[in-house]
Write the structure tokens for this entry.
Amino acid sequence: MKILQFPLARIFIGFLFGLLLFRIVSLSQVFVVCGLAFGLIALYISTLYIQKNHFHKIIFGSLVFLVSLFVGISTALIHKENSNPYHYTNQITDYEKVHKMDLLLEEKLKNTKKNYRYIGNIKELDGERSLGKIILNIAKKDTVRNLKIGSHLKVIGIVFKNKNPLNPNVFNYGKYLENQEIYAQVYAKPNQIEIGNYESSLWSGFSNFRETIISNLEHSAIAKEELNVLNALILGQQQDISPEVLKDYQYAGAVHVLSVSGLHVGFIMLFITFLLKPISNSRKGSLLKLLIIVLSLWSFAILAGLSPSIVRSVTMFSFLAIGIHLRRTVNIYHTLLVSMLLILLFKPSFLFDVGFQLSYIALFFIIWLQPILSNIWQPKNKIIIYFWNIITVSFAAQIGAMPLSIYYFHQFPGLFFVTNLLILPLLGLIMAVGVLAVLIATFHTVPEFIAKPIEFLIAFLNTIIHWVASFDAFVFKNISFSTAMLWSSYLAIILIILWIKKPTFRRLSIAFTSILWLQIIFIIQKTETQNKEELIIFNCKKNSIITERIGNAVTIYSNDSIQKNLSSNLLIQSYLIGNFSEAKTKKPLQNLLFFKHQKILIIDSSSIYTKDIQPDILVIIQSPKLNMQRLLKTYKPKEIVVDGSNFKSYIQLWEATCRKEKIPFYNTNEKGFYKI
């Protein structure tokens, strides 16, 4: 691949390995600083004595890689906030205690059914200097006025540290938050919050300016559902889109439309360039145009929330604008690498953001694969060329993003190309009218003669999306896909494309070997599944779920409400997908189970049990009223297991009794799912 021949590509790969290595290996600050210093000194000495032979080139290249590696490690170390002694995670010793904190609101998040949610930066904790980002949850049951970003809040509440998942194969939300440098959440009622002074900054100014635009749009004659889509399309605010609409966009393969990205930024750049046409192309005029374009793009990025996709797109288009200004041919691969390198230097946590990964991999495949696909057929009609380009771009992006998308979301929209053919021409018109509406909304409400057309266009867009999404048979769901299969898939795709670019027998053999390797990995995964047996007691708040897996066949023990909605139960579906399994049998909860020569007695809310059973494991569910001491003397179990369906007060009493009797006690609320 020619891209690997670029010196910048090799530097970037070293930097990338540094970021990843920091996550895997614990390295001290002294070691990192010394390693970086040694690398820089050695690199400088090598430039003084370098000779034009193969051996010295290898040494020089190795030192460049080493320096890039340590730059990546040091970047990750600098941005790791909880390594600072003033970080709140290093100050809180008791997480069950109520803490007083001074927060600076930085961002508004999507609300839940019970809470308004914000990201705040702690300035003081219990009267002492502190720092670190935290999620603030404010109860909805009492009225609370809209909080402005940039406001200082005095909050009293209990801080809840991020936890690992309590059930198998589910999304690790705590790890996701840690990748964003958020390590805890605080829950508070409005009467526990005191609003302080407002701190003016560029970020808070843009954020509140965006809220003003949204407020003016809300007071315009645009229906709520269409307005929420407009806010996502133009301002990057997806918080208020209904789950039903979002699901339609996912099933239709058009969820990228709701994330402000290269498509939107490209349109903005074209629009600004069109407005600046009256300015002459003299040296000063060209420089003025460049400054206006770059400032406008970054203002738009801040306005849209600086998501990874928008930052990536604006950075890349900024370099494109600079290249055009300098009247040089812009190498798109260099632009891509520079934009990634700059973004990760300032925000290394973006590397682990799903949107960042998907947007870059899709863009790379569009640049690399789309020209190959477009050369398959070269129509002469301009209209056919336009739609053919849409199809080839869609296929290139989806081929690149498909393994990653299946790995994270376990589904794939089969009609993505139909969606793009139908909506992309309409999307250009929506963007044109939408940008005009937003520009007007910066001053006052949007007049009806503009509001109604944009409402109609978005309603029509939603109708098309819903129609495509209704073909449920073309949405491939619940696909099991491991990390090894992900890497093997990309290896196979890249090698096949390289063979298509230059069809030789050697490349064909390597491509077929990669396909064979992918199949071998899949067979190994299936074999491991077939040879494994396990019983899982899930942690579920209101219900009890027990699964017994023999190979890939799973028997599910639960109540009727769970059994009827298995396909929509995230706990069970995540478990089935993660273990390449399927639910073969559904049974009601039983009082007695046998698994691997172990007798398991289950006591539920009825508190009915026979005395002549001597169980190995005693499982308590649904808060039965028990005399635990008498129960232990009767059964003498080896271990007690309680799931999340029990009252916490009951669990505390049972645990105290078991501790006294020296019998192991397993609480799934604290330790997560129980596994035999």
